């Protein structure tokens, strides 16, 4: 068995993964907010200790940036770790077995390529849209690491160069500063959103996510919300007449992570597949269903983003505008990545991947507008297939799949 570890801004997870990629046991705990380096380390040690006996190797996914091969980490969403020697600490804790560490978003991409929606393609970008926005790049069937091992940080591709919000990385207009859960929530609250859907007891609870985002330097763009945002928004190409319903029905027959929930067809027609397996036809997008949110681990900040998505589905104007803004930013970034890397497939995982038509409709519209080269128009965007265990599966693949993802 491989001990797999997933270190994120809202949760720490560990599990035992068999050689076929099956997670046989897993445990999760909330990431201590505002904790110092040693408190975070002790929390992680306490989490993995019950799983450590007999581990053949240790694979770790952690937020970046990080140094490779040394394995010092400085996750933007874990301020207590700056240059923390995570790999060195784990190697001392597990002497005699290989310890391999990579970016958590890279591990999610690796998981989808190895065992998920990307199994049939050699050229893909795996994205996670949650507390942050990250990615991993697979070209010619192999993971692209880049000079320092930090390739794939699509969350820091600039999508709003003029007047864009300040990002936790220190830049402005980054995709993460527009489309991450905390950024979305902060923007919506600043523009008058009051949560209507279930999941929070009061607007004050929702503000927690916005406050955290503000602490991270995520400021809303200084642009007015339309006075009368429609409950139904056109997202089709010019003359398509296509529209998506803000209050569309939820399909319960398939969930992200269940077999058959996603059909990935590399080199397809350029359609965007929604959660639940519905595909957006480039000519008409009416009637798309949205799968339930599944059982992905969430804490207050991610729950708030989920409530924002639910309000958008119900037609709340500010929530719709916020999700549209995020979807368009994602579409612009994916178009740029596709032109640069000649991708077949993009998978989108994380809590916001279940937002449905309010996110995926504007994403598809922006992708059509900006992916103009013939080869780029064939890229397909689908929800990630592996659900909450994807990070653990990808971390284990760093050991189990050898040089394919580690070299």
TrEMBL record:
Source taxon at top rank: Bacteria
Region (Disordered): 229-280
InterPro entries reported in the protein's UniProt record: ATPase_NBD, ROK, ROK_cs
Stretches with biased composition (Low complexity): 251-261
A Pfam family recorded for this sequence: ROK
Comp. bias intervals (Gly residues): 236-250
Family: Belongs to the ROK (NagC/XylR) family.
Identification of the protein by name: ROK family protein
Species: Nonomuraea phyllanthi
Lineage: Bacteria, Bacillati, Actinomycetota, Actinomycetes, Streptosporangiales
